[in-house]
Specification:
Blueprint lengths: L2 H4 L5 H7 L7 E4 L6 H7 L6 E6 L2 H11 L4 E5 L5 H7 L5 E7 L4 H5 L25 H7 L2 H12 L4 H14 L5 H12 L9 H12 L1 H15 E11 L2 H16 L3 E3 L9 H6 L7 E7 L5
Parallel strand pairs: 1-2, 1-4, 2-3, 4-5
Antiparallel strand pairs: 5-7, 6-7
Amino acid sequence: MNHEKIHVPVLLDEILDMLRIRPDGVYLDGTVGLGGHSSEILSRIPEGVLIGIDKDDDALRHAAETLGDKRVFLRKGAFSNISEIVSSLGIKAVDGVLLDLGVSMLQLKAMERGFSFLSQERLDMRMDKTQDLSAWEVVNGYPEADLERVIREYGEEPFARRIVREIVSQRKKARIETCKELADLIARVSRRRGKSHPATLTFQALRIEVNGEMDELRKGLAAALDILSEGGRLCVISYHSLEDRIVKNFMREEARGGLIELITKKPLPPSREEVRRNPASRSAKLRVGEKRGARV
């Protein structure tokens, strides 16, 4: 697989501008992925340090190939572990943190990872392949009410009830094994038409549930702010309303408390040119806050 072709860092110019990168600074990419953002940051810190974190072992291996350098420290971990990871490296504070949320194209394109609508592989969606809970367990094992809650809350899917009824009816006959099987079921039931696949919102909800993304995001935002030096910047790219709402509310609350200054009063979207080049960027939103003090 050609990773150069499947990975295009989103809002790259905006990130590089907003981080205000210093040649001797310390920067943390909390979702290093294939290293697209990180490689550009690294090229601008000849005397600095880059810390790359990811839950996905495959992503870390590819990032190591892209970023192999003595200035780079790659570690496996979740947002909630950021403070511990930085401390373990003997680093007290960082000058900038980037969190690029959501699923990577590496995961979507790898059919065996069970993220794609087209995958004939078993439902999975685990970013960390060592964890127990997968989408298969959620779809086939969650009680009906819990499954509907997940799809309605995390997918904001208006047809959640109808979809869940069909899932429960189907799994009484036989387990729903593959992504394509589930995607086809949802397409039949929702009858939604449009540019997005009818299963988009349900798959989003399952991925969020499997990976505990909302809770991790809340913990990660707080941890990122804790490790920032005064004047350091937190840059967060979100891709759907649930993520963006959490980021917006967090930054506004911390700004009211005087801990950060809001650099972006409204989220920055990708340019028309970027969306033309990379349609996957169309829903991205960037929010930036600058640390101004410390929690009492």
